[in-house]
Amino acid sequence: MITENNDIDKHIDDEIFECINPSNLKSFFLFAGAGSGKTGTLVNVLKKFKKEYGNDFKLKNKKIAIITYTNAAADEINHRLKFDSIFTVSTIHSFCWELIKNFTTDIKKWLTIDLNDSIVDLEEKISRARDPNNKTAISNQRRKESKTKRLDSLTTISKFVYNPNGDNITKSSLNHSEVIAIVSNFITSKDLFKQLIINKFPIVLIDESQDTKKELIQALFSLQSQNKTKFSLGLFGDTMQRIYSDGKEKLGADLPEDWLKLTKVMNHRSLLRIVELNNKIRQEIDGQIQFARIENTGGVVRFFIIPRDADKEKEEKFIKEKMSLLTSDRKWIDKNSAKSKLDISVKTLTLEHHMAATRMGFGSFFNPLYNVDKLKTTMLDGSSSSINFFTNIILPLYLAHISNNKFEIANIVKGQSPLFDKKNIINESDKLTIIQYSKTSIDKLLKLWENNNIPSLIDILKEVDETKIFNIPSELKLAIERSSFTDSEEEEDDDDALLLAWDLALRAKFDQIVKYQSYISENSPFGTHQGVKGLEFERVMAIIDDVEARGNIFSYDKLFGTKALTKNDNDSISEGKETGIDRTSRLFYVACSRAKKSLALAAYTDEPETLKAKLIELDWFTDEEIEILK
Known about the structure:
This protein has 630 residues and is an alpha/beta fold. It contains 27 helices and 14 strands. It starts with 9 loop residues before the first helix and ends with a strand.
């Protein structure tokens, strides 16, 4: 559907502005579907607020808290608001940590209760175990020991630490879920804490609120209901884009009567055919309808069905060629030489990161490490010191080398090498010897790339270890030692999944680090269905393959009807509970709604004809839009 009025949502900005009038605060929920321009609305309203009330807020030392889904979104909003001090823009974890980081005594009390409750619960499970030596019983025993140890260590902690963007593994660290749980508890139980929030942040605006932890949303609802004239809670969201199970279900429903409920109906992003598909996907879920802009006619959508045993690289290349012909758009087949995600010609979305790693050619490095649970976060946010050894030292050194930039090579060595540590320079009388040794060591390291050779990561490590030109993280030092063992000499810690993963990853060639860095920097043509929420691309190809994804949270086979529902699925449906099909349909909506002009869906299946019949039944695609590749 196309609207005759591109400004149909213009009134929304004014109504939200009235809600955050400091003398007449009101709470609101803005339903904003894909491409509706909610960030634009948010920024416009805040700019107007700054002009009208900014000076008064500064004098009273008050701020508006804007909570975003990602650091990238926070950076963009901060930039557009010119980093004005009356706005605190951050992710939910960063915001929560800032609220509680000085409440050390209260955090200790909360942890003491929480750990004791967990220990009692684990003791009960251990006592009920029929076999104390089975995997679950042993795991519960270990968890109990770990929690007991942590409980005992609380008295030695003078200050808690927390990194919102990485793993938190020291004894004084809080983990991500604890930070959210503590803030939620403090908001509902501590009057002083409630007053602190209201006084400092009388207005809290939450973007992507459907994926904000339900316990925190509930706590903020409670705070608002008790302080309606002093506290405004503004939620921006789309329940169809809730992709995590710990978000609040049906967030926009059953809101208090005094809340303002607003809906943006314009899709500024996509051409008409894609908007129509988005509407059909959500038709039976919530019936929300969007309109395309007057000028956004056209658009191409194709659903390609591929046998699971097909050559994936070949078929996906063919799909791009076919889309280029269908759309008369050569950028479907142009090579991606993008310097940023804005330049990418085709964005290919996979269900899991390992699928992208395999297609981009860095799977030998990435997949072994990503299979270790405690490494998943640091693999994707770039906070692993071991990986940073390659991405922050060796990669820049290599890039300077192939550019023949000797000045940059010297800068990297001076900035990263322990040889140029201040203490070392002061204590060393013959500074020329240090300079000469560093040059010899770097030349020797860079020789690994001579004659178009691509060294393995373990070869690079061994060379650095021999010259000591750079400090090697402890994890990687262990890997070097292990690489020299024969099978008979190998130690018992082969059970250690982390070390085994590094053993495999370090066999990869260095060019995989280049590709990995491109991927996590979002400068690659690949992303995941979940990870691109909030982004948009001219051309999108979404890969659908439950088997390759190896997951059990989503099931496209069940969504499209080629796999039977389980008893649990049917029970959940009859009880009105959420199912994997619900989660998958939302994920499918997110993936499809990223496309601006054209969308290709590449679905791998064991039953091509059945899948086509089911898709026709769904009525999301026309017969001519579905093609079975033989």
